[in-house]
User: Fold this.
Amino acid sequence: MGRYRLKPQFRASHVMQLIGVLILVVSVPLFVMGRLPASSRSADEVVLGDSVGGGWQIPLRYADGEPVMCESSPDAMLEGGWDCAGTSVRSLVAKDVPDPDLAARRMLRAMGVSRGMDLEVTRDGDLLELHHPERTAPSGERVREEQFTGLALSGSGDHEGELLVVAVHGERGDDFTELVRPQIRNNGERDVTELDLPSRLTSEVRV
Assistant:
């Protein structure tokens, strides 16, 4: 005679409770990290590109060749993200990109740093630069809405078909763009001390 076993009963409420616990376990550490004072967060080297997987990387440097060290952003878990004294720098690499223009817009939107497809694009060879459209100020002057710049570089050689995208925005967004742009365009070919980089950021924004 076969044994009779009680079958476990799973109710919808049990499943929802389990999901709630999992969300809580994941969100609490991120919430705590976001509330920590700047001095208690770790300062890491800013590496543009595939900062986690070890693929296409461009270490960001100051004009004197020293590495740019900024706080890791707790809200940028899926891409390289840093908070540089009020200026955010984020970076991603996409592969198998047939349309760099469209891919750059979508990646910037996915990062949460642009409103979507309304970005204006200028080209300098393989380098794309994206901004929000200018608006008319009360004085009648045409001004940009914020210090936001998206930069996208199509890969070549070992990185053929890839697209490196960097988003810079915040209090010193324009200054950091002047630091980031030439290093992306250079793509590691020349020593950074040979590039025309803004020296005013050398020590002022270090963590």
